[in-house]
Amino acid sequence: MSGASQSVNPPHFVISSEGEILGEDTPENQELVRRVVACVNACDGITTEELENGIINDMRNAIAQAAPLLQERSQMTELLQREIRAELASRKKNS
Questions:
Q1: Distance CA 95, CA 82 (A)
Q2: Number of folded domains that form the chain
Q3: Full DSSP string of 45-63
Q4: Is 19 within a domain?
Q5: The domain containing residue 84 runs over which residues?
Q6: 13: helix, strand or coil
Q7: Which residues does the annotated region (Disordered) include (predicted)?
């Protein structure tokens, strides 16, 4: 990157407690407000300290590790259920 600094115009708006834009009502600002509201709702019950300490990344990592294990367990459960049904049907047929 060159030594010249680029000027970035930050959005100029305030979000009301109801999620309304007070200020420039542009599509970009509306999308930012939508994202902020979604983030606030998603983080309900998580303290600011937890957010600052990276709990979201920790949770994402835990889910990434657990999801394949849960999927494998689900597949094995389905397989066992099919085998049990087949065995029960076989026993019923032979009795």
A1: 20
A2: 2
A3: T--HHHHHTTHHHHHHHHH
A4: yes
A5: 55-94
A6: strand
A7: 1-22
Indicate whether 36 and 66 sit together in one domain.
no
Asked if 37 and 19 touch (Cβ cutoff 8 Å), the reply is yes
Element (H, E) at 23: strand 21-23
Co-location of 88 and 65 in the same domain = yes
pTM reported for the whole predicted model: 0.50
The average confidence (pLDDT) of the chain is 85
Report residue 88: phi and psi, to 5°: -65, -40
Q: Is pLDDT above 90 for 71? A: yes
Q: Which residue has the higher pLDDT, 78 or 18?
A: 78
Beta bridge partners of 21: 15
Q: Would you say 12 and 33 are in contact if contact means Cβ atoms under 8 Å apart? A: no
Task: Give residue 89's Cα distance to chain centre.
Answer: 42
